[in-house]
Structure formats: structure tokens, C-alpha cells
Records
---
Amino acid sequence: MNVIEIKDLVKIYNSSEVQVKAVNGITINFEEGEFTAVVGPSGSGKTTFLNMLGGLDRPTSGSVKIGGTNVWDLSSRKLIDFRMNNIGFVFQSYNLIPVLTAGENVEFIMHLQGKPKKEREQRTRELLESVGIGDRIKSRPAKLSGGQQQRVAVARALASKPEFILADEPTANLDSTATSGLLELMAEMNRKFKTTFIFATHDQRVMDKARRIVTIEDGKILKDERFER
Amino acid sequence: MLFSISWRNIWRNKVRSLVIIFSIALGIFAGVASTAFMKGLTEQRIQKVIKTEISYIQIHKEGFRQNSDFKGYMPDAAQLVSEIRKIPNVTGVSERIVVQAMAATAETATGVLVSGVDMENEPEVTNISEKLLEGEYLKGIKKNPVVIGKKLAEKLNAKIRTRIVITLQDTANNVVSGLFRVSGIYTTNNNMYDESHVFVKAGDIRSLTELPEGAAHEIAINIDDNENLPLVEESVKKLATGYEVLDWKSLRPEMNYLTEAMDLYMYIFIIIILLALLFGIINTMLMVVMERTKEIGMLMAIGMNKTRIFSMIVLESVLLSLVGGVVGIVIGALFAKWKSTSPVDLSMWAQGYEQLGYDAYVYLSLEPMMLVNITIMVIFTGVIAALYPAYKALKNDPADALRIE
């Protein structure tokens, strides 16, 4: 079943003199439980594509349907709520809230969703334990290593029980040990919760784990390959 | 959780937050201390007028205050005094014979207002007897003692035991004169009052003017607390039907205006302080928002809506202002409390202050309501200061913000 349906997606940046087509007519579907890497050279349009997919960057034309809802038809207020309930984000530089502890960072999104305290606390504990840092629940991000911070970010992304998780270069700031640990973790989460993962990456190690690799160049899909792993 | 984030955000940059908190605290302390000073000054002035000059309530025959006609007396004044004495919260009642007269020494003469007072009752309502510079309060002179103000004594070149001839009209409109001797010289630090008010024994002026026994022109009433004034005034009005019953606010309306004007000035003063602080808080909050562009973008991306972002920034600004405000209020209140028993010494400028009727030693006074109002004003300032920075934050585009390295 398709979780995401993308049709003729175009993004044009208008600078003062030239028009830049960052994404140039992408049509693609993502199914439930996929573990996909979107790859391509710098400036190929990966991040722009992911941002439009995640309801962060409005496309010039085309549509993004998630679970049957055309996200770019939603009002800005509804779009924020839609993102909160359907999409999990993992960023390159972790982007945790520095003043909150690891536990509170994970709990925060459930707080925004209006979940009861007991449920929030229980799910936070479960998620942090499943990403392997249950003992750091009360630590602030500054006290955690890069790998640990990214694990908290994954737990946060999973907290809202989203349809899929978008991860933009999640391993770019991590060493090889942390990277392989994080990839194992995300693969496990993908298997355990059937959550769809879509990565934008340059990292060969991520590509080696992905069961689908979509190669983008000059804003267009160059290759769309699937692997049995 | 929003509160917790906002509170912890304040302490992310401790030095910057402490600088702005210190400046808010200092500004609010200055506002509270000045308010307490001005309030103390005004209250002392009013208390002085009440205790020395007019007392809390006065009763007259209708029209007496306008024309000072000697025949405008209350025949049943003595009886009224004994009835008023029974009203709860009344601490003193005294009747007076009040007459405009000419006071003359061998050297010069001047117009004065003579009050014939009851020696026993009068100290219950006014404290002229405690304001003597020389001599005694209507004592020490066998016949017809008079107490005069320092200013009048200078004008008439009178000293203790100096003879003063007081000339006035009696009930039959005859001009009569009496020879009095100065028994005491007082000062209230109000030159105008001291120059025009003299005190004699009621019995002496009664026999001079043939005013009927028990009659008087004025009844002065003292009470325990200004808060009980409306209650007592109502009871007095019921007893003194047909007479004009006035409280100190009506007797000396300028005193009431003084209180109101001073309150208004104080609020204007605090608003000016807060306005100056406002720009500092706006500056701090703008820096906060600029520094956290990426973080705010991330919060928007993961689902924090604009209302919550706005609330978070407003809350941060309000908490920042409130911390400074509360510190300033507490220090200001403690200072006012200390200076309410140990007065601010302005004796260096005593002459100027006393010319204006104010004391050179000011006991600070603070109304709890004023502190509540200042707190509300500080919160309001915090909200106003956050508006533009919050607007800037909401203008963030999450996709652009997240690209910031």
C-alpha cells in the first residue's frame, strides 16, 4: 500500500536573474515499511525533495499525497498539525531542544499532541530503552555524544507514531561506530514498528542498508532500484 | 512544558539574562522606593493638616464657613459633643468658638482667626499643645492667656507675656475688646497657618462676647483610623441633623487632590521607567529569537504551531521581566519597610520643605495595592516587549531555518 504518492513535483527557485529548477518533475510512490535512501550529488535536489515531501517547502507545482491527503492543499495551521501527527523528522545536526532532557525531548511532541501524562512517560521510557539509551533519560543533549543525541532524535521522531520518518543526512556528523549503531537501530525500528524511513544521504553505509535507492540528479529521478536485504 | 521550556531558556545565556534582570530590578526598585517616598510625604502632610489644623470631621451651622458670621453658632454644641463622644471609633471631640478678630500689640495690628477652645477636649482633636516652641498651652498666665503662632509673634513682635488686644464683634454686633497675654508660641511649620490662627480659652471668649453657655461655632472630631471615616461620618450626620458635617477631604479639598495627583504622578513615573526598560527587553528578546532561528524552525517542523511559538516567546519575556520586577519590588518593599520606622533625613533642606508644609523627616509608606499594580504593569511590559520578537519568530520559514548551519 502506498503511504506517499508524489506526482509531477516541481520546485523552482527564482533568484534575481536566473530560475533554478531544484526539483524538476518527480513522480514516485513510497510504500508502507520501506527503508529508502534518496541519493545524489550535492545540489541534486535531495533536501528540497525531502522538504516538499515533509510539508516544509511548498512546491511550485505537483502534488504530495500522504495517506490520501494532499498536504499542500492544507492550510498552514492544519499542515503543522498534519506534520506533527504523520511525519517524523531526523536532522543532520540532531536539533534537539537543548534545555530539555533526553526524556523531555521525546515527550515534547506527545505533549503537543495532547497525550495524557502517564501515556507520554511510559512511551518515552519504552522508546529510549528501545534506542538503547534508557539510562540517559534525564541527561540534557549537551551531556550526550553525537550518536546518543541522534538516537534521542530517532526516538523523538517515532514518539508521535508517524506514517513515515524523513531523515536528512542523519549520519553526516557521526563517526563510523555511531553510524553503524544508528543504522542498525533504524533498521530495527523499521522492522519492529513497520515505520517507513526515507533518507537523503551521501553515505555509502546508509545505501548499503537501504532496500530501495532512489538516485536524483538535476532535480530528476535518474534511477530507482530495489534490493532484497 | 511550555512554561518549563521558557523558564529554562532564560538561563541559557545567564549573563545576558542577569544584566536585563538587574536593570529591571533596579528600575522597579527606584519606582517602588520613589512611590513609597512620595506617598509617605503626602500622608505625613495630610496627617499634619488633620492633626494640627482641621481634625477628621468638623460640624458647623450651614453657611458659617462662607461668611464667618459670629451669630452662626450651634446652640446645642455641648450636648452634641457628649452624644458624638459615644460613637465607636471616635477618639476625641471638642467644640470651639471661632471668630475673626483683630490682634494688636503696642507696635502693630493684624487680622486673625481666634479659636476659643476647651482646654480638656482640644488636645484630643488637635496637637497644637505639642507644637509649642516657648511657654505653655493656655497656662501660666492668670487671666486671658493666648497661644499664638511663631510667624504671628514675629509680625507683632510679641514674646511670652506680651499683651495683645483682641478686638471683635459680639452677638449683638457690638465691637468689644479683650486684653490677652501670650502664654505660648507654637509652630506647625506652615507659615500661613501660624500667622493667622490664635487660641484662647473658650470661657474667656464666651464672657467677652456673651455667647450662650453650651453654644459653639465649630465641633472638631478625631477618629482612630481614616478607614473608619465614612462610618463615623454617617453616624455624626444622623446626630447633627440640620448642620453641615464635613470630613477632611471636603474641608481641605486640595489635600485630596494632592493624594490623587501624587498617585497619578507615581504611575506616570513608573510607566516612564517601564518604557525605558521595554526597549532593553525588546533588544534581549530580539537577540534570543535571532540566535534560535534554527531551533524555532525545527520546533515548527516537528509540529509546534504558531500560537505555541508565540506563547513560548511571550512567556519567556514575561518571566524575564517578572523575575527582575519581583526582585525590584521585594527590595523596594523591604527598603520602604525599613524607612517606615527609620525616616529619610532631609533636614539639610528642612527650610524649603517646611515652607511647603512638609516634614524634613519622611517616613516611607507603601500601599500593597500599588505593588500589585506594579506587578501587573511589569507583566504587561513583558508581553508588549515580546510582540515584535515573536512576530519575527513567526515569520521564520522552517525549511529556510533548518538550512542554517
Note: Chain A has one domain: 2-226.
---
Amino acid sequence: MAKIKGAVTVNKERCKGCNLCVVACPTDTLSLQPLEVNDRGYHFAYMSNPDACIGCCSCALVCPDACIEVYRVKLD
Amino acid sequence: MEEVRLMKGNEAIAHAAIRYGCDGYFGYPITPQSEVLETLEALMPWDTTGMVVLQAESEVAAINMVYGGAATGKAVMTSSSSPGVSLKQEGISYIAASSLPALILNVMRGGPGLGTIQPSQADYFQAVKGGGHGDYHLIVLAPSTVQEMADFVGLGFDLAFKYCNPAMILADGIVGQMMEKVVLPEQRPRRTDAEIREQCPWAVTGREGRRKRNVVTSLELESDKMEVINHKLQEKYREIEANETRWEEIGTEDADWLIVSFGSVARISTKAKELAEEEGLKVGVLRPITLWPFPSEAIRKAADGKKGILVVELNAGQMVEDVRLAVHDALPVKHFGRMGGIIPSPSEIVNALKGMVND
Amino acid sequence: MELQDIIRPENKVYAAPELLDQVHMHYCPGCSHGVIHKLVAEVIAELGITERAVGVSPVGCAVFAYNYIDCDWIEAAHGRAPAVATAASRLWPENVVFTYQGDGDMSAIGTAETIHAANRGENIVMIFVNNAIYGMTGGQMAPTTLLGQKTATSPYGRRVDLNGYPLEITNLLKELDGTCYVTRQSVHTPANVRKTKAALKKAFQNAMEKKGTSVVEVVSTCNSGWKMSPEKANEWMAQHMFEKYPLGDLKLS
């Protein structure tokens, strides 16, 4: 069975730290930055557990600010 | 080709709109102007010129359809009478604020409130002083004949598109309902979509052929930018005032007294002038054709050397305020008016004039 | 496998829609509007109607939709979007015209325009964002506010004796002969986002095929107005809103 490996990028300046991507992620890949904030003062999302990402796009689908891009590769 | 017909002013509006190449009419029935919509529905222009005619669910909807249609660069219009025009003020303000061309006909009836269905000129203030909210002006044309009802459709649209500004034909129940001979203009073709895209590069036509989107909006939350928008509107109004003021003078040069009247009342005043002259009074009549821009300068010139001005209107005294502003108290200015749908006879006007002479 | 080997253009499976401007949106964090904007932008591009799409934005939080979705727009007076869209559609029948309206716009001040445009069967799409509150003006009661729901103008909760019942305008629109497709969706989970996108696509296709009026209600959150976190607002919506506004197709024809 092919294994799926994913990754996301977050446009940290557009992210408003709403946390909806964190909630939507089925693999607990994402978190909000606990300390760091962007120019608008938001704790932006980031991959705190990148190894878990399966590139399912759940985070990107629910993101209201369209700031997540998703990448996926199949590993044979 | 041109055609001579006998018809009501309201019917002439409908015929003239089709012949101008109007793209859309959106209206709601109200007396005394329902013949506009009725005539358009009977003529079925959608089968000939392709003009859209729609009976809306309200005057509010109708004017917002005009806003939507004007935003797409099409030549669109609506018509109503006083209570209905009050409902349209929201949309009129948006159309003016967005600098869109459109034509609005008000066949005035007596107010306030539901009032009467008889003729009136009591919406002068509403038409020339704003009506809706904000600093804006309509180009206001006042027809006094059925011929002018027809002619002002074309003039109104031409001015509206020239200045990207709504124009209003401010008629009254007399010219709306009265039947007269009228020469209808030649049928013009409606502009093609390609012509509209070329002539109205601001219009919401779909982004075809453009990389940048067009947005029609009157919203600007940043005050400094909103003020710039307002200044631009005011510059446009000054340009319209300089170029488009229209009026008619009848025997004003060697007269001692001046009557100022607009619309159908100017015709009664002209008859009164003749009657007064039989009694030895030398009277001239000045008829503003554009109520905004108002012919202040023309009135000032015509008033020079006169003994007084009588302003005759079908209201409690509205245009008289602009006449007074025009002449700066240089001579006596009095108002004579009837209200509630009553039309004064020429002799009533002569009596009012004689009262002024004897003061 | 290293991250930089995954994050490569050929592996990209999701990106912001091209038709959505890459700018900061004025919406509050977690607002449903952003997701719906994204879907509208995707659907317009996927249907190939970018040059023919005309949006009519409302008065309310979505008034600035024209700043984000890259098609032509007209900004309407409060509640009048369906009337504006009627003319825009009839005068340019080849264009695909849609309104984007909130609950105040659609079911309070614009009820007449909404019902009559739908009843005439105008070939337009009405996107109805129902978050049961007036967002832009600061969280006042909407026609769709639930009984008991607290807002700035129902501070102790909406009461029938004072405020009447929540208005299910979409159910009314379903009954009209002019509507060809009436559906109620949400965007609070990835699966629901996909369903809403499919619904929007169907609605825009109906307009392209001149089938009549399509109505897509999106039951949404206003976490600022509801005074909840975005996450809690989604939970509250699922618990309370869906009972009154159940998801699914109301009319398919």
C-alpha cells in the first residue's frame, strides 16, 4: 500500500489565528504559534507536527483566509 | 422616420423612449403616470428594439433595477408620481453617488402624503435640492408640452450619459395626461454591447476584454477619499451649471413685470401675460427649462429694470426661493400658487399680478 | 522525506483560488464569509465564466466582497441586490449574475426584492449567508436569530412575544415557481465545505442554463457577534442552528 506524505505552508501574514485549521486537522499536524505573532498580532498557524501531515486539505478547506497551501506525495 | 401623432404626454414618453433606443424601463403603476408602463407593455418593444420592460414589485425595486441597469452601461429609465418618487429617493442617491447615467420621470401629483391624483408642482424642492441623502444634484428638466415630454427623453438621456449623472423629467399631471400633437423622433438603434463596452469603460459588463474588474459602488469608508469623491461630484455640477442651463423667455425685454413659471403653469402664465397686456400691463414670462441647473443668471438679467417678479407655481412657494436668491432682493418677488391639484386660471394670475402692482 | 522535497510546485494539491485577491480580508478571524468567498471564486473559475460573472454585493459585512473576488461587481443598497441583479441579468443575458447577501439584507429589509426576483424566476444565483445576527452593525438581532439567542437588541434572548419567530426565508423561496434549486449548506467542516462548493456550482450552472433562480443558503457563524471563539461558534451552530435550519436540498428540479 502506498503511503501518503503531506505538508502545508501557511501565509503567516494573512493568517488570523482563528484555529479552525487546527480543529479540522485529523492528524494533529497544526498548532498556533504559542509565542510568535505576525504583523497584525495574530498567533499564526504552523506545522507543529509535520511528520503527521497526510496532505488531506482539511485545514485549507476550512481556512477562511485562504492562507494555506497543501502539498502531497505518494511514497511507494 | 419622424411621425406626427396625437397622444398624451405619458404615452409620448413611452414612444420616445423606444425611439431613443432605451435599453430598459422599470416601473410601478401610480396615477397619473401609469400610461407610460401601459403604453410600453402594449408596444412590446422587446420584439422590435430589444428593450427590456419590467413591472417591478415596488418603486423601490424599480429604481434599484435602474441602478443595476445603469451600472452595466445601459440606457435605463423609470417613471412614477410623487409618492412613488419619494420611495425612489434611496436609489436616486445611490445612482448620483455612483455617477451613473439614468432617466427618472416624475409626473407630479398633489401631496403631501397620499395627497391627490391631480396635478401639482410640489416636488420642486425634492427634485432640485437633493431629495435623497447626501450632496448631489439631478439634472432636472421641466416640460411644458407633450412635445417636450417626448423631446426631453432624448435630451435627458444625452445629458445623463454626457455627465454620468441621473437626469429627471419633472412633469406634472397636466402634461402627463393632456393630449397634444407631437412629432415623434426617428427610431434610433440601441447601442450594441460592443459600443457600450467602448463608450462606458467603467460599466459592469463582465470582465470580457479587461484584465481589471469594474466595480460600481458608492461606499468609501476613508473620509479623506470620500471627500475627494464629493469634490469631484461638485466639480461636475459646476460644469453642468456652466454648460447646460436652459430657459425660455417670452416678451421679457420691454416688460415692466416678470412672471417666472415652469412646466404647464408657464403656459397659463403666458396666457395671463396676454390678458394683462389687454389691461395695459407690460409683462414678460421667463420659463426655466432646467430647474437644476437653475437659470439664475438669466433671471437676474431679465429682472434688470423690472418693477417686480411674480413666481407662479402649483405649490406653496418653492421655486420662488431660488428666484429670490437669483435677484438678491434687487426687486420685489412674490409668489402665487394653488395647491392640492387645483390649476389657476389665467385671470387669477392677472389678479395676483395686479395685487402686486397696487402694493 | 524532507519537507523541502514535498513542498514543490508539482506536489501542490491545494492553493488559494486565483480569482481571490491575495489581500488581507477585513473579516474577523474565523468568519464563514472567507470560506464562502473562496468557494465562489473557485466555482466561477472552474465554470469558465470569469469574464461573464457579475456579483452584486449587499450592505452588511460582505459589502466589500468586491474587494476580494476578481469579477465585475455592483454594490447594492441594503436589501436591493435582487432588484439590481434582475436588471443586470436581463440587460446582459449572457452574463451570469449572482447576489451575495446576509440575513438582514435577504430576509428583513430586502424580503420583497428577494421574493419577487425569485418568483419571477430571474436567471440569477442568490447566495444567502445566514449567521442569525447583524454582524457589521455590531451584533443586533436578525430575522433569523433563534428564539432565546442573545444579541445586542435581544440582550435577554429573542422572545416570541417581543420579536416573533425566526424567519426561514429559504423555505418560503422553495415554494415559489420561479426557483429551480434551493439548498441549505454550511462550511464548518471539510466535508461541508465540499458540499457547499458542489451546491454553488450547480446553482451557477442553472443560471448559465437559464433555468431560473437558484438559492444557496449557507448557515454560518458570526463568532464576534455571538461572542464565542470560532471553534465554539461552529459547535454552537451545529448544536442549535441546524435544528431550525436543517442542512440539505430543499428543492431540486
Note: Chain B is about 40% helix and 20% strand.
